[in-house]
Each structure stands twice: as C-alpha cells, then as structure tokens.
Amino acid sequence: MKIIIINGPNLNLLGKREPEIYGSQTFEAYFELLQEKFPTLEMEYYQSNIEGELIGKIQEKGFSYDGIILNAGAYTHTSIGIGDAIKAVTTPVIEVHISNTFSRESFRHQSYISPVAKGVILGFGMKGYDLALLSLL
C-alpha cells in the first residue's frame, strides 16, 4: 500500500513554531516513528510552502497511490485550487490538522478541502496522522 503525507506552509517549522499549539517534535522525527509503527506501508513525505507545488504533488500521486494524507496548513482556508485538485484525482484524501481549527480564529473554520476529502481529522496533535493512516487501512 502506497501512501503519501503532504504538508503545507509553515509545517516545516514544526518543533520550533508555536510549540504550545503544535508541540516540540519535528515532523521528520515523527515520520520516522510512523514508518516504524507501520512497517508494511510504503510511505512518502512531502512538504512545501508553495500552493502550486502542493497541487502538483496531489496531481502526481493522485491516480497511482492508495491514499493521500493532507495537512494543507493555511491553504486549507484559502485554496480553491487545492480543493479542485483533490476533486480531480481518484486517490482518497484524508484532511489532517494538528490543532482543533474550530477552537482558533474564525477564519480557520472554513475549509476548501473538507467537502472533497474522504474524511477529516483535527485536534489530536501529531496522532492525527496515525489516525489517518489507520483509516486508509
């Protein structure tokens, strides 16, 4: 089973950025733990701060992979293009957010991804990625 985790803007700063919200662990360190926890999965990780690169990666993997786990960061609330890319591909997409976006600023309550995602997991910290992987199994 081939799965890609795609993280959007500022998630490259996990471990440094607002640790009270996002924790103190880097995503790279967490990804290693995920690989150990799910050794039978072929997993890939991709991160970009650039909207078009995220769309390109969704299109590239969205017809040949078994699942996409997407944390689009702030693009969740602004990118019709990412939503359209998800609609265009056949691979199921699970939307993940580390924080509970509904407990934060009101602009974070809107998602252009949720209506086209297979499911949404938010507010469970990094554990949300584990839950997304389990949902794809």
Automatic annotation (TrEMBL):
Q: Name one Pfam family in it.
A: DHquinase_II
Please name the pathway.
Metabolic intermediate biosynthesis; chorismate biosynthesis; chorismate from D-erythrose 4-phosphate and phosphoenolpyruvate: step 3/7
Q: Which reaction does it catalyse?
A: 3-dehydroquinate = 3-dehydroshikimate + H2O
Spell out the PROSITE patterns in the cross-references: DEHYDROQUINASE_II (PS01029)
Provide the coiled-coil residue spans: none
Annotated organism of origin: Flavobacterium kingsejongi
GO MF entries: 3-dehydroquinate dehydratase activity
- The UniProt record gives the binding positions of substrate as N71, H77, D84, I98, S99, R108
Q: Catalytic residues?
A: Y22 (proton acceptor), H97 (proton donor)
Q: Where is this site: Transition state stabilizer?
A: R17
Q: Name one GO biological process term.
A: chorismate biosynthetic process
Give the family per the record. Answer: Belongs to the type-II 3-dehydroquinase family.
Q: What are the alphabetically sorted keywords of the record?
A: Amino-acid biosynthesis, Aromatic amino acid biosynthesis, Lyase
> What is its biological role?
Catalyzes a trans-dehydration via an enolate intermediate.
EC numbers listed for it are 4.2.1.10
The record's note on quaternary structure and interaction partners says: Homododecamer.
**What protein name does the entry list?**
3-dehydroquinate dehydratase
